[in-house]
Amino acid sequence: MIYPITRMRRLRQNETMRRMVRETRLSADDLIYPLFVCPGDNVKNPVNSMPGQFQLSIDNLVKECSEAESFGIPAVLLFGIPEKKDPVGSEGIKEDGIVQNAVKAIKENCKDLLVITDVCMCEYTSHGHCGEIVDGDVHNDKSLGHLGAMALSHVKAGADMVAPSDMMDGRIGYIREVLDAEGFENTPIMAYSAKFASAYYGPFREAAESAPQFGDRKSYQMDPANINEALREADLDMDEGADIVMVKPALPYLDVITKVKEDTGIPVAAYNVSGEYSMIKAAGANGWIDEDKVMMETLLSIKRAGADLILTYFAKDAVKLL
Ligand code: PBG
Ligand code: ZN
């Protein structure tokens, strides 16, 4: 009989002992902080469904980035809210568009902070879909042209990395070609490879003003039931030149994170999305859970599942507790 020779509780006796045998550790290095940038001066619009998150004009965005950098957060992910929208998201590819200008301002002020940009049309299109609409659905290959142009404009403005989130087929290879042809062969691509058609994105769509005006995103984002398909997506993106693959959302898809990490062996990012954030914030505000503890446990679980990087609105709150 093994018991009582083996007593698992021996190594749990006190915090020092537990600290020695801890298997997973969260670090500031793991975190990427998503931010929303909007036109104007001194704007700080609270996002109702995401307490603590704001739409920031460039001046305030730069302040937020400086603070993040001083906390040791290595990177931010930018989402832009343009002045106006149209069916093909023209604002998204302008040399002096909102994200392009934001990138320039951050790079001037925060020397060591990496700026990653979200590459997708939904914030810029009047219909709110992630590509160009033809006959009522997003047209894959037509959308690629817009995405390539957007990625290039971000990188020309100084973005350190681009993160295409549209889920069109072939977009990683297409964007890689566009960037390479312009001499940006050293700019990494973080691919939203397994991005599920999730109800957890609700609060984000308020923050980014990007809710689809008709239908849903099920013809391009993944079915929440599928994991084999997620592995194929990650494989394809890797073949097309993705440097980092992402799983999104994180918490309801921890199994996908584990598998994608095992299968690809390349850096895996997980997006702790808006709905995951808002649920913890809401329960915390009601006193139903200990917000800080649930936040840290959640982020740790994502890391333990296999994520190397975590995109999270909690980035600043979490580093304060590390
Ligand atoms: C769209 C996009 C979404 C998010 C980031 N980019 C979701 C969507 O509207 O489908 C979600 C992020 C979050 O919920 O925090 N390209
Ligand atoms: Zn989109």
Concise account of the structure shown:
With 322 residues, the chain is an alpha/beta fold.
Features:
alpha/beta, TIM Barrel, binds zinc ion, 16% strand, 39% helix, globular, two-stranded antiparallel ribbon, 10-stranded mixed beta sheet, 322 residues, 12 strands, 11 helices, binds ligand PBG, single chain
Intertermini distance: 41 Å
- Report the C-alpha radius of gyration, rounded: 20 Å
How many separate domains? 1
SSE ordering: HEEEHEHEEEHEHEHHEHEHHEH
- What is the tally of beta strands? 12
Q: How helix-rich are the residues, as a percent range? A: 25-40%
CATH architecture title = Alpha-Beta Barrel
The largest sheet, given as strand count, sense and whether it forms a barrel, is:
10 strands, mixed
The name CATH uses for the topology is TIM Barrel
Note the quaternary state here. Answer: single chain
* Broad structural category: alpha/beta
